[in-house]
Amino acid sequence: MSLPVVLAGARGHGRSHLRNIRRLEQSGLVRLVGVCELDPLSPAELEGFDAPEQSADLGELLDRTAARIAVVCTPIHTHTDLALTAAAHGVHTLLEKPTTASYPEFERLLAGLDKSGTASQIGFQSLGSHAVDAIRELVLDGAIGRVRGIGAAGAWVRDEAYYRRVPWAGRRSLDGRDVVDGVLTNPLAHAVATALRLDGSDRAEDISGIELEQFRANDIEADDTSCLRLRTARSTPVTVAVTLCAERNAEPYVVVHGTEGRITFWYKQDRVRVERTGREPAETVYGRTDLLENLVAHLDQGAELLVPPHRTGAFMRILEAVRTGPSPAPLPADAWYGADGSDGGTGPRRIVKGVDALVARSAENLATFAELGADWAARAATSPETTVLRLAGRPVADYVHRPRLPATLSPRPYLHPVRTLGGLVVTELRPADHAHHLGVSMAVPDVAGVNFWGGRTYVRDRGPVALDNHGVQEHTDWLETDTPGSRTQELSWTREGRELLSERRTIRTHALSADAWALDFTSTLTNVSGADLSIGSPATNGRPGAGYGGFFWRAPKEGAADPRPEVFTATASGEDAVHGSTAEWLALAGQGWTLVFAGGDEETRRDPWFVRTGQYPGVGSSLARERRLPLAAGAGLSRRIVTVVADGRLDRPAAAALAARAREVAAS
Q1: Same structural domain for residues 64 and 139?
Q2: Which SUPFAM superfamilies does this chain map to (predicted)?
Q3: E strand or H helix at 100, and its extent?
Q4: What is the pLDDT of residue 561?
Q5: Strand ranges, E, within 42-84
Q6: pLDDT at 422 over 60
Q7: Judgement on whether residues 95 and 132 belong to the same structural domain of the protein
Q8: Are 548 and 414 part of one and the same domain?
């Protein structure tokens, strides 16, 4: 008997799913019983179907139609909620790629599917190609010798109208929600996923060392020309170079380089070319299993799913690196040129000079754009939006001093990723639990009623409320400094053009040992509003214990199987004992890393610590823990926090020694 199917998102790319469902209806495998769209489909759009139910409410539609499968082809940022809605109704899903818009959302999806016991197939169509298994067998049989690396290349043409077709196109976020609609993560995501599957490295734990070069020629938020390089758990280097600013459309491909030959896979055509030393090249075109057919076979006959969510974990780690990394660098004006569409394009568009050949060279040489000598890549990589902090030439943190963020996040400079000397990332950016947490930043929830923290505002007797009261910290200038490893910045804290505070911020890096370094963060705020003002917090507005505001470090959340980070001072342990204390130093120890926070001067050491380890891991200062902090017109306040960033899980004596060493080095 055919399985009843509901399609959520039947326009745009959803039309291809509608055509496929029509094909499978004719073969008796499925029948379309419902369509979920904001605007109902017309009879012409539903030609060939037997009047399926229509509704904008997926849950209601699933109940009404008793569907067994929901095909979800909606905007990226809606994937998780709609897939979990289907799962809650006991309905299996074919979920369009990318799986979700963030890794925390991916984990939430996995947990929800596990709880419901429903199946889900992710729409990476290329992984249904029979060529994938054929190439894997050739590689395992040693047909091209030892694998040296895998390269992928994609050069497509997309005009300016492509980015105007829907509100989320080319966006990193929309209305405070992650979208991540860049070339690597959406239109040419198949190049990434296919390269990972060919290496057998598609699970989250299978990759490491992600490097990104992301650029944009178009006036968008996301990337349109990017290069990715990573290393898999098999020690295979993988490079993916892609663009939507090509001179002409070309078939994307993945090439497996071996010591005795190579295999090239044009994954949209299911075409494979095998070149072996001493033999004539041979080409084969393979068949393909449709992903919806495979899902039906899984439900009816127990067939193995071709693309279950956990087999997209490695791809999702890459998407997360894109999501939490610096905004794509705008390409210099002389790196691209405009075309009016008369050359065969579909409309006015931007073309990056030489990029067609460059992506091919990247796949051939397993090299990044910058390594291949692309002048524009080197120049754009030094965009004024991000400054890389280094120790002995080694990057330890990215300081994004001109972020592109939604107003609801209270845009402000931040440090992320911050790394240990061993390479572990010890910050988190825009996590699902608190999207306004931005790595390491100076964040204050209430400056004369203006929210410089992000998210909702705590209102007495009402609780957290979404208000239009967010401020912006804007970079105004870099000041010259003679101190190596030191950067001093001037910022303006404004709300709708009115400046409340000016800030002078100095960030220094200090080497401590082979396993530890220190981030020295000093902020001096001056009231330039022309009137007296005061600084508050949720605690001063009626929420006990929530006196946060000032320096704040959002640490990474451990996996579900890992214990929460340990927090301690010289005399106390645990969140309850440490939160609100005025200890000279405080340590937060996670899986393979430890952060030790210390006040850099007497004034800072008088501020209580704000600590969380249960709901999320984070440490900050409390400028207004119990009562508002007044700041007269023209008056200023200064705070300095020195943070040790160490590899390994330190005990109390080791943390105390490093805290003392950091203060000593910072004072010298």
Answers
A1: no
A2: Glyceraldehyde-3-phosphate dehydrogenase-like, C-terminal domain, NAD(P)-binding Rossmann-fold domains
A3: none
A4: 46
A5: 53-55, 69-72
A6: yes
A7: no
A8: yes
